[in-house]
UniProtKB/TrEMBL annotation:
Pfam families: GST_C, GST_N. The lineage of its organism: Bacteria, Pseudomonadati, Pseudomonadota, Alphaproteobacteria, Hyphomicrobiales. InterPro entries: Glutathione-S-Trfase_C_sf (IPR036282), Glutathione_S-Trfase (IPR040079), Glutathione_S-Trfase_N (IPR004045), GST_C (IPR004046), Thioredoxin-like_sf (IPR036249). It comes from the Bacteria. This is Glutathione S-transferase family protein.
Length: 214
């Protein structure tokens, strides 16, 4: 990969962007960080809104193009670095299930968890994107119970996405800490890439807090 192909990750510590950084570390991908101090509101400044009008991270730049949305990033990057083995090939029978569970995160889990956290009633089951909260979680738990990963013995990028998400949502009490979810999240958070990013985030967050206080 040439210098022009290096990934730019627009980033803020201790946010969902950490998952994208862990993924880049797992892929062994060359990348640069463009760090936004969200405590100072840098994500709402015109410079970043011109890149991502929603003011969200993670956002990546690559080959002069911008990719937003966590699910898109988790599909795009592993396909860009297939040698890392974190994505099934297009002709692999696991490709469909792999895409299913990545899409399930964005289309079903996130809206369900937000509604649950906000104590909002879901839409009627025939109109809700996730049926209902318990059904959404139950389908995920059944898939993970067969383990150790979503697709069996092989870890994929989908597991990095889900493992980190479950770790966060269980930490804040939005998702129950049942044995299946806890063991699964621990497999991902025990990995060296997650540990490196977490340690770096602690330092970066402290620096941002000091900048705001100063």
């Amino acid at each position: 990969m040439s210098a022009d192909d290096k990934i730019t990750l627009y980033y803020s510590p201790q946010t969902r962007a950490a998952g994208a950084r862990v993924l880049l570390e797992e892929l062994g991908a060359p990348y640069d960080l463009r760090v936004l101090n969200m405590k100072a509101g840098e994500q709402r400044k015109p410079e970043f809104l011109a890149i991502n009008p929603l003011g969200k991270v993670p956002t990546i730049g690559h080959r002069g193009q911008i990719v937003t949305e966590q699910v898109a990033i988790f599909i795009y990057l592993p396909d860009l670095f297939p040698q890392a083995g974190l994505t099934p090939a297009l002709d692999d029978i696991r490709r469909g299930p792999y895409l299913r569970w990545i899409a399930y995160y964005g289309s079903s889990s996130e809206p369900a968890v937000i509604d649950h956290f906000m104590k909002r009633d879901p839409a009627p089951v025939t109109q809700s994107p996730y049926a209902d909260y318990d059904t959404m979680l139950g389908a995920l738990e059944k898939q993970l119970a067969a383990g150790p990963y979503l697709l069996g013995e092989r870890m994929t990028a989908a597991d990095i996405l889900w493992g980190i998400a479950l770790n966060w949502t269980m930490m804040f009490g939005v998702v129950p800490r049942n044995d299946v979810f806890v063991r699964y999240a621990e497999r991902i958070t025990a990995r060296a890439a997650f540990q490196r990013v977490t340690a770096a985030d602690v330092e970066m967050a402290a620096q941002h807090a000091a900048e705001c206080a100063g």
